[in-house]
Amino acid sequence: MEHTYFFAVDLGATSGRTILGCLGDGKLELKEVTRFPNHIIEACGHCYWDIYALYREIINGLKTIAKDNIPIRSIGIDTWGVDFALIGKDGELLRNPYCYRDPHTVGAPEEYFTHIPRERVYDITGIQIMNFNSLFQLSTLHRNHCTALEAADKILFMPDALGYMLTGKMVTEYTIASTSQILNPRTKRFEKELLDVVGVREEQFGRFVFPGEQIGVLTEEVQKLTGLGAVPVISVAGHDTASAVAAVPAQNENFAYLSSGTWSLMGIEVKDAIINKESYEQNFTNEGGVEGTTRFLKNICGMWLLERCRKEWETTNNSYSYTELIDAALAAPAFRSLINPDAPCFQNPASMIKAIAGYCKQTGQPVPETYGEITRCIFDSLSMRYKQIFSVLQKIAPFPIEKLHIIGGGSRNNLLSQFTCNAVGVPVMAGPSEGTAIGNIMLQAKANGLVNDIAAMRRLISTSVETVSFEPQNTTQWEEAYHKYLACYREDI
Ligand code: LRH
């Protein structure tokens, strides 16, 4: 089989990468082309993303490929969810997109529910209520008479906005649109009733596309900048989590996944959205997957906790590698202090270390002081939160969950994978760590007719990537610790 090359742009909330995928002889090989940080820019009282910096990084990655004369068949872009760019009538970006961590949406859902009740919003969308969902970002902008929104002709979600900058074509890709809380998963259309409240019309979104459709080809401007030809840009699963879930190397359908990065997304793949009293009460989400599947999952504050602590340590000249942090966590006492990683105080605190200390003080637990103790507290608490969500999944899933697949950067952390395995009590398979980029590339391969369906994709992935397997250990000890976690579990700190 001849080798075919694909270019993936995978942008997360803390870092981004461009990756070259090579498919041949029934195997996929990856090569990281570039890796770069994605900074939240705090300015004039708001938090922004620098979309031009991201665009420049994509151009740099493409330039490298062109210099090396690698004949890429297509390009795919995936990013984090919910955020969007506003485009004026003249096709210009109206300002840098807001970052979902901007506190301007605090309280926005409650205000929105005075127009349409919470239950109805959930019933229409099946999306967990989170204050930063695009619907609530739009309602905040609308309420504040945001001049950019008032002038906007089009609204493009992040992967689509970058796709537009590369091709000049405006689309709205289904999986990323499903994170907005504006889409109805049954009809796969935007809901006018929800949009009316925020003064937005359906025509303000781009042409609606599903994963696999072509957006366009590189503009002449981008061709000149990069040295490439008219390479097609394919709409992959634009939502990073959707691309990651597509890459789960599962052997059958009875699995749950944990996509572990800045966020931890834990869930199952189902045929139809699960929207009922229990899913509403547990605030679970139904996001769009590939081939008509639904990602029934819950957001858990993931490596964000540790990423923020690491940044703080760096400012005091203490940079710790992940290996150092993991070793120190292992040496620290177990289950000494347990936090609810999803407590509001951890969403975007000025100091994560102080926020953790504050939570522990308020719940009468010892305050973790050393970097090892803090890291241990984060790992112990994450594994407990995973158990809590996993038990809900076990109750709601229409099948027995036989295995948990951990994918994404966090799957490289063997200590946390073992903790998670002990906590959930089923076998865990960790890897691939570049799940999102792999999903992105394989969906391009499918669009180019090189694989038939998601099952074939997953088979090919499982023969191409390395995984690590874990079996539950010391489960009684973990059960006991879970009781302690529940006793210290708070949602109001
Ligand atoms: C993970 C993610 C998640 C969203 C969040 C904003 O990167 O896409 O699925 O909820 O970012």
Automatic annotation (TrEMBL):
One of its GO terms (biological process) is glycerol metabolic process. InterPro entries: ATPase_NBD, FGGY_C, FGGY_N, Rhamnulokinase. Residues 5-245 form the Carbohydrate kinase FGGY N-terminal domain. It comes from the Bacteria. Residues 256-447 form the Carbohydrate kinase FGGY C-terminal domain. Pfam families: FGGY_C (PF02782), FGGY_N (PF00370). One of its GO terms (molecular function) is ATP binding. Keywords: ATP-binding, Disulfide bond, Kinase, Nucleotide-binding, Rhamnose metabolism, Transferase. GO terms for cellular component: cytosol. Belongs to the FGGY kinase family. This is Rhamnulokinase. It comes from Phocaeicola massiliensis B84634 = Timone 84634 = DSM 17679 = JCM 13223.
